[in-house]
Write a structure and sequence with these properties.
Largest sheet: 6 strands, mixed
Structural class: alpha/beta
Shape: globular
Number of helices: 4
Helix content: 10-25%
Distance between the termini: 11 Å
Number of domains: 1
Length: 115
């Protein structure tokens, strides 16, 4: 079911901002006309991500500041790729329901094994 996606994902969700040095980054998988939604609990980190997107001219990014455990239920799939920080792994069952048929689940920048 899972496959490697490089620069072709139309819808990407990030739960907890990944480290800048992650092996696989949201920007690496996002298609040029794709949409990226980032949920980040830390207000300062969320503001930093928004500012970086603005400076980069990236209009295809939405940054949601808030606890992903409270916000994830408001999202609608399907997503091609979901990045999840280990801090939010309790959400994995709900997040995997948002994946498309060939969707890829990535934990801290590493593709996750299918359960």
């Amino acid at each position: 079911m899972h496959k490697t996606v490089r620069g072709v994902a139309k819808r990407v969700l990030v739960v907890g901002a990944p480290a800048d040095d992650a092996p696989v980054s949201p920007d690496a998988v996002l298609a040029s006309d794709g949409m990226l939604i980032i949920m980040e609990e830390d207000a300062d980190r969320a503001a930093e991500i928004r500012l970086r997107a603005l400076n980069d001219g990236a209009s295809n990014r939405t940054v949601i500041n808030g606890d992903p455990r409270r916000v994830v239920y408001k999202l609608a799939g399907p997503f091609d790729v979901i990045f999840c920080s280990r801090a939010y792994m309790s959400l994995r069952p709900q997040l995997e329901k948002l994946l498309g048929g060939d969707g890829v689940f990535i934990i801290d920048g590493e593709p996750a094994a299918a359960d």
